[in-house]
Every structure is written in structure tokens, then in C-alpha cells.
Amino acid sequence: MNPNRPVYLKLRDQIAAAIIDGVYAEGAMLPSVRALAAEQGANPLTVAKAYQQFQNDGLVEVQRGVGMYVVRGAAERLRAAEREVFLREEWPEIRSRMERLGLDPADLAPTS
Questions:
Q1: Is residue 90 within 8 Å of 98, Cβ to Cβ?
Q2: Mean pLDDT for the stretch of residues 35-56
Q3: Burial, 39: exposed, middle or buried (Cβ in 10 Å; 0-12, 13-18, 19+)?
Q4: Tens digits of per-residue pLDDT, 62-100?
């Protein structure tokens, strides 16, 4: 993770990982802004900004007075977006480092 990245985006990444991992399944309610802020030691406005990003992306829906819920397909959409970022931004650097070190992808596979 980039240490210069804004806190709300770091929180968004943590929540996205939890959705992908099934911690927050489709249809599950996310923790309230206050609860997540207390858990993470973050400002509630920062958490609200992270949640707003999910709303803007259509990954959660708000039920007024009840809470925020993960929508159907959110995990797969997040997984696809993370794959794209990995292949575009991270993989070229990893591949370059492997080449510098003389590593072949087959060297990384388990031998047993």
C-alpha cells in the first residue's frame, strides 16, 4: 500500500478486500460509520467519504434509517477492478524484478 495515499482510500481498500474475501457478503450490512471509525481509529467523516465512494460506484445501497448493504455482484466487480490494476500497475514491476533476478515463473510453482 502506498503510504502517501489518502486515508479514506486506504479504508476503501480495506473494505473492498473484506467484500472480496466474503467478510461482508452480498446483501450484508456494512458497519455503521461510527462503528467502523471507532474500530479503525479514524475520523467518522473519513469513513463516510470511503463509504461514499462505494455508493458512487454502485457497490452498496443505502436503506435510510437502517444501514448500508453490499449489492449483488459487488465482490466480482471489485475483484475484476483489482485484477485490472494488478495487471496494469503491479505485474510489470514484478515481472521486471523477476527478470533481473533470473527467476522463471516455473521457479515459483510448488515442487511437491
A1: no
A2: 94
A3: exposed
A4: 999 899 999 999 999 999 999 999 999 999 999 999 999
Interacting residues of 9 by C-beta distance below 8 A, sequence separation 6+? 50, 53
Q: At residue 14, does pLDDT exceed 60? A: yes
Residue 84 has which C-alpha cell? 485490472
pLDDT at 39: 93
Q: Which helix (H) or strand (E) holds 84?
A: helix 74-85
CA distance 98 to 96: 5
Q: Which three cell numbers stand for residue 44?
A: 467518522
| CA 53 vs CA 16, 64, 93: distances in Å | 11, 17, 28
- Asked if the model's pLDDT at residue 27 lies above 60, the reply is yes
Q: Is the dihedral of CA 53, 57, 63, 67 positive or negative?
A: negative
Smallest CA-to-CA distance from 67 within 22, 24, 103 is with 24
